[in-house]
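Field notebook, page 596. I keep forgetting to write these up properly, so this time I am using the form the group agreed on. The chain and the ligand, sulfopyruvate, are recorded exactly as supplied. Prediction of the bound pose follows.
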Amino acid sequence: MALKVPGDGVQQPVIGWVDAVSKIMKPDSIVWCDGSEEEFRSLIKGMIADGTLIKLNEEKYPNCYLHRSNPNDVARSEEATFICTENKDDVGPTNNWMAPDEAHAKLLKLFDGCMTGRTMYVIPYLLGPADSPYSQVGIELTDSPYVAANMNIMTKVGRVALEHLKDVGFVKGVHSIGALDPSNRYICHFPDEKLIMSLNSNYGGNALLSKKCHSLRLASVMGRDEGWLAEHMLVIGIEDPDGTVIYVTGAFPSASGKTNLTMLKPPEYMKGWDVWAVSDDIAWIHLDSEGRLRAINPESGLFAVAPNTSPKTNPRIMEMVKKNTIFTNVALSSDKTPWWEGMGEHPRKLWDWQGKVWTAGKSAGSAAHPNSRFTTSIHQYPSLSTEYNNPNGVPITAIIFGGRRSELVPLVYESFSWEHGVLMGAMLKVETTAAAAGEVGVLRNDPMAMKPFCGYHIADYFNHWLSFRSRSGKLPKIFQINAFRMGRDGRFLWPGYSNNLVVLKWIVERCRGKVEAVETPIGYVPTAASLKIDGLNITETTINELLHVDKGTWMDELESSWLFFESLGERFPIVLRQELSKLMDRLQESSSANPR
Ligand code: GTP
Ligand code: SPV
Ligand code: MN
C-alpha cells in the first residue's frame, strides 16, 4: 500500500518509519491524526457504530461515552512489561528484562499482519507546553480507535507535535490490540532506540504509550542520562489566605490518592486556602539556572480512578467529568448515566461493567470494576493552575511521598535532610491496588512510587536522586504522608479527601519555619495541637493514634527494607546504607519512639 502523507510539514524520518511499520502490520488503511474536534467526533461515531462505545445521557452527561474492556484486560500488566537493554544488569531486579534482539524477533512475528482488516492511526503527540525546552514528541501507531480518542484527550495531537519534532526527534510507539491474548501480551521498552512496542492489550497504562511507557519508563532513562527526573508525581500549587502560592509534588503509588489530592476542594473550615492543579500523575523535573527544581506536566488530560469519587469526597472531580469524558468499565444506570461504588445512592436498575444486570445485595462482585476510570481533558478543570502551561515549569518547595499503609506510617512527617528524604522514598511500601493485575492489598516495595515505572536499575535511580545534593543548594524539603492508616476496627482513622488540606497546610508551614514539630527517630512529626483546626471533626486521641511512631513495628520495617536493599546488590548507594543505619541507631536509642 502506498503511503499517503497529509500535506507538507511531515518530516522524512517520520514518513520512512511509518512506511516501514505499515509494511509489517499491513493495515487496510492509514489515518494521520490531527487532533481536531472533527477527528474526535468521527472516531467516536465509528466506535458507537461498532459497539466499542455506548453513548451516555446527552442531557446529563453531554459528549460522554462508556467503554467496556475485555475482562482479561482491565489493568496494567506488570508481568508482561519488559525493559529491553543489551545488559541485563542495567534494568535491575525490579524490572523484567528481555534482550533487544530476542524481543524484536518475538514481536516481529507477532506483529506481522496484525492490522490486516484494520485502520492504522498515526498519532503524533506533544508532551508538555508547546514552547517548553523540556517538552518531547512521540508518535504512536495503533489499530485502536479507543486509543486514538484517548490520546486526543491525554496529549496534544497533530501539527503542534510535528512542528516541535523538527528540533528534537521523537519517541516511537507501536501498538496493536492484536487478539487481546493475555498469553502473548507484551509491553516492551527499548531505551536505546527510544522505542515502545505494545501488543494484545487495549488498557490505558499498557496502550496509551505516551503515559507510563514514554513519560515514565523511557523518560526516566533520559533523565538519568541528561540530569533530570521523570516521576510518578502529582504537582499542585497550595494557596494560603494571604494569596501566596507554593508548589509541591507528591509521589504516591497507583490508586493511592494523587488525583484526589490534586483536585482537592478546600473544606469549609479552611477559608482562604486553595489548591491549584498542575499535574495529577506525572512530573518532569529539571534543575533551573538558580538551582531550583522545576516541574512540568507532560500530559493534557487525566486517566483516573472512578470508584469512591462522589460529590462528598470530591465535588470538583464530579463536576469535571460531567461532560466530554470517556468512562471505562464503570456501571451503567437505566437513564444512561455512569455509576460506581462510592458515588452515592444506588440506582434501582444497573448494568455492571461487563454489561450484565446487577442488583445490590444479590449480584456477586462490584458493579463498576475497582479499576474503572475516566479520561477527561485537564482544561476542563476549573481550578487548573495558571502556571500549568509555564514552559519552565513551577518551582518545587516540597516533595511528598505517600501511599496506602494501614499501619506504621504516621499521617505526616518530615525528613531530617535530602539524603534521609531519599531513604524515605526508597523505603516506600504500599498495599497493592486494582490499578495493576494481581492480588490487591499485598504489601510491596514501591520506591518513590516508581517500582512499575523506573526504566533502569532502581539502585542507579537512588544514586541519581542523591546526585542532586551536589548540584543544588536549594533542594525541596521531603515529607511522607499516609491518609490510609486504620484503627483496630479496620476503619480509616483519617477522614482524608478535602481534609488532607490540613496536612498540606502543616507542610507549607514547615517549609516556612512557622510551625513546631516533635523530633522522633524517624523524622519531625507534628504536635497534635498543630493539626487541630476548628471544624476538623476528629478527636485528639485519634490524632495521636495517627501520629504514633511505634518502635517495634518500625524496627521490623527497617529489617524488611534492609533485605530489599540487599537484593539490589552492589549498586545500592552507600549513603542510603548509612542513612538506614543512622535511623536504626536512633530507633534503638529511643526508649519509646513517641516522645509525646
Ligand atoms: P493512579 O491514577 O492509579 O496513579 O491513582 P491516584 O494515585 O491518582 O489515586 P486516586 O486519587 O485516583 O485515588 C485512588 C482511590 O483512593 C480512589 O478510590 C479514591 O477515592 C481513594 N482516595 C483518594 N484519596 C483518599 C483519601 O484521602 N482517603 C481515602 N480513604 N481514600 C482516598
Ligand atoms: C497507574 O496505574 O498509576 C495509572 C493508571 O495512573 S495507568 O495509566 O493505567 O498506568
Ligand atoms: Mn498513576
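OBSERVATIONS:
- The pocket of sulfopyruvate (ligand 2) is lined by residues 76, 204-205, 211-212, 254, 281, 303, 435 (CB under 6 Å).
- The mean pLDDT is 96.
FOLLOW-UP: compare against the apo run.
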